[in-house]
Design goal:
0% strand, S-locus receptor kinase C-terminal domain-containing protein, mainly alpha, Transferase(Phosphotransferase), domain 1, globular, single chain
Length: 131
């Protein structure tokens, strides 16, 4: 969700408009190259508060977003940790692993994986409306 907010792009919609490219992989590559600001939503850049955004704030949000979509659940931060990282300018933020890495955090080597989805979890959400 953090990555979608920063980029203004829905992860599911991105491949349809960009020759099947995976948004997560594109964001990862831009962040790793030090070009994360290129992924910032143009609407945020054009907003009055967009002029007050520092590159460091945007890069921190992208880094936190990348941590939230780690393949292995044990590599993802808790919501409390995410809130603390977003609220604090001085909180240490761990380095995320490449979305192409898979496997558990054991000592076994990681094997490359295609960047097709940001999560392996299957979830169904039901919304109930009052009468």
């Amino acid at each position: 969700m953090v990555l979608e907010i920063v980029t203004g792009i829905k992860c599911k919609e991105y491949p349809k408009h960009h020759d099947g490219d995976n948004l997560l992989c594109v964001i990862w590559n831009k962040w790793k190259e030090g070009n994360g600001m290129e992924m910032l939503d143009q609407a945020i850049k054009d907003s009055p508060s967009g002029n007050n955004l520092s590159e460091l704030e945007v890069i921190r949000c992208i880094q936190i977003g990348l941590l939230c979509v780690q393949h292995d659940a044990e590599d993802r931060p808790t919501m409390l940790s995410v809130c603390l990282m977003l609220e604090s300018e001085t909180a240490d933020i761990p380095q995320p692993k490449s979305p192409k890495e898979t496997g558990s955090s054991s000592s076994s080597p990681r094997e490359p994986q295609e960047c097709e989805s940001s999560s392996i979890n299957q979830i169904t959400i039901s919304a109930f409306d009052a009468r």
